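Let's sit down with a protein and look at its sequence and fold side by side. Once you have written the record down, we can walk along the chain together.
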Amino acid sequence: MTEFNKAVTPSDTLHVYEHLTPDVVLDALASVGLMGDGRLMALSSYENRVYQVHLDSPVGSAELAGDVVVVKFYRPDRWSDAQILEEHDFAAELMAAEIPMVGPLVLNGTTLNHFNGFSFSVSPSRGGRRPELENLDVLEWIGRFLARIHTVGSARPFVHRPALNLQT
């Protein structure tokens, strides 16, 4: 049970995310030293709550630097911190292998932060585009990246994340 759920009484009929107001999002960012300028936009996400937030000043270094970030609040009680951090480590491994991936920033020595019972990460905001699937060169490029992702993933098994296979 998360710290947040301990604070919620049984008579509280609000969904846990109803406590995640724009002020809480901005306060969570401030808790890791990032100051939002007040502009934020909710992004699509099935389980978590994800926001694009504009900052007063850039964060990150080199190609990861920017003044717009994506803040991901993980659904309480869905994954443990160890499982989330293992996912973050895998993202860092993919980035180190030069796979076009945007992973979470290290803030205050970690990629996973906590505020008011919510676990969250902050990543640089990077735009994307739809691939040209009718172009055979693009399909070959995608296939190569899929192979590289599998190569990185097969280097060591996940310890905390459940396996996804035919039986599960």
